[in-house]
Please model this.
Amino acid sequence: MNFTREYQDKLRTPEVAVQAVRSGDWIDYGFATNQPVLLDDALAKRKLELKDIKIRSALTLRPRQVVSVDPDREVFTFCSWHFSGYDRQLHDRNLCNFIPMIYRNMPLYYRNDLVVNVAMISVAPMDKHGYFNLSLATSATRAIIETAKIVIVEVNDQFPQALGGREECIHISEVDFIVESGNVGIPELPVDPSDDIDKQVARLIVEDVVNGSILQLGIGGMPNAVGNMIAESDVKDLGMHTEMLVDAYLAIYKKGKLTNKHKNIDRGKCVWTFSAGTRELYDWIDQNHFLAVYPVDYTNNPAVIGQFDNFISVNSCVEVDLFGQISSESSGVRQISGTGGQLDFVTGAYQSKGGKSFICFRSSFSNKKTNTITSCVVPTLATGGIVTDPRTQAHYLVNEWGKVKLAGCSTWERAERIISIAHPDFREELIKKAEQMKIWRRSNKS
Model:
């Protein structure tokens, strides 16, 4: 077959390609780095021609033109499966709606329940066999493509080639239109430097990491601090099985500690489903046989995670209540982030022989605008607060004041342990609240 000729036959300008969109359509932009740039701009320019266009995305790393041109949401309704800082700002301005999910179920949502009229996905250049690599976001992208009635790919020359695994490619025969974006670059996601609190929390977690542990590190400063501290520790022969491939893994690899030699499955391979980080990380991914990208219904499947011995899952949260309910995505009704795969890994790590899941957080939050400090340990989650991890799944909580295990504990044991790592300024008040809720024993010491 002549794939070069087929490529030319399907090649369009962005303006021509987006003519495929009709009023009332559901459009899918894909995940994080794989969201389109030129197609987004071309679709925004059709605002006066269209009505009722709904757009799904996730973890947006660039400003979206469909939002910028339509501040009153007259035409474009922008939605996100998982909030980045940009998505959160849009949500606060009523310009973005959240889509609740558990990450491992994302492919099922598309295959079983959702309509996608047009998928617009950024991809790496086509190879000689006619395949476009999905690069930094395999995630649920194949499910989106299979569901979509029309598929438009935006070819980005800067994308690395991510090796699978499975579901990491789309063949030209599955593509309706091709747009070339040229050298638009890739969004990077640098991690903020770790501070003393991050490092305190990291030390408490790293002491539970043993030779041969399999690591999952979430997004944010604290998980990154854990990864960097592991890189400087004495442990060795670590493995990686994660949803998000972040720079901390590269740091561990550079120290010769990431070998995957003791993995029960996928031995010798670092397994992941999407990545966002620095250019150096993207270069490490490119055509690297040490790394294997899989769809999220594999990476985040608790039944898969549970097959590993000594699985260590590290994620962070916003606040926790005295019952052990964990919110990692909202403050009251304000959506901050998303469930993502946290519950997937909290569940899977507990099923692992010797496995542990750690939810880390700061004991208090300082509001610089109001010059006030509030506790991140609360009696009960605020009205409208989202439970990311139910109390029945909570394993370990860690902050700068300590580390406590909640699995199998009664309500009074939970209250006692959680209050023991609350900020000291708030402990007495939390004890009073626990007494009122009848989850505090008289014999407990304050």
